[in-house]
Amino acid sequence: MADYPSTVAFGIDIGGSGIKGAPVDLMTGEFYAPRFRIATPHPATPRAVSETVARLVEHFDIGPDVPIGIDFPAPIIHGVAPMIANLDKSWTGLNVRDLMEKQLGRPVTVINDADAAGYAEVHYGAAEDRDGQIIVVTLGTGIGTALIMNGVLVPNTELGHLEIDGHDAESRAAASVFERKNLSYRKWAKRLQRYFTHLEMLLNPDLFVVGGGVSKRADKFLPFITTRAPIIPAELRNTAGIVGSALRAAQEAGTFTLTPQVKQRIRTYRDDARAKGE
User: Fold this and answer.
1) What is this structure's pTM?
2) Domain 126-234 superfamily per CATH
């Protein structure tokens, strides 16, 4: 089996089109080895998806001491997915954690995909070292959200499903709507403005972080959005889910703790990396 340091955990991102995984160096928030992707099986039944996850683990030859975290496109309540949108409906009500542990023959951590991405952004990305209440919003097929208070995740918020003006918010403002309706950035930003204004009225966060693939074009639409709290683009983008799920797995397994000393080492490394990138 591959020899991984104790500061490495394995993250897996389950999506509607691809299932991706990589070992993550938790001291840097970066992949310890290149990501590997396998197309999501269709139909994406529990058996087919769990077997694909097992193939990912086998690809990296992950030993039994390496924590494994899996992010999943649904709320996860005590391991159970009470609803599902982008995979086969047979996932509804299933204990995802038990299924994966049985398939892999080892403990795993399962977390909602938006929660994983938001958690990674707080500890390694755009919101690093920011205190208070942070809302990470991922704009994609739908709208995913993660709520983090002083570094502590409040899971399964599902704020993309807020009803605004008689509509489910994501049905009006998700990135998929922007693309399907061929909206201009300004017109899409007007819809997003309504969403962020409502979110801010309800929760009064200290910071908004906007993620999802479209965040790489944040300069095209964020300038049209005005909020009391700062609103900034995500940094980790398509690595965030893997990184966040790996971090949560290591914390639950007790192999990695974000002590003040560790946070300072992460901060120093990332400051140096950012300086080299400028």
Assistant:
1) 0.93
2) ATPase, nucleotide binding domain (3.30.420.40)
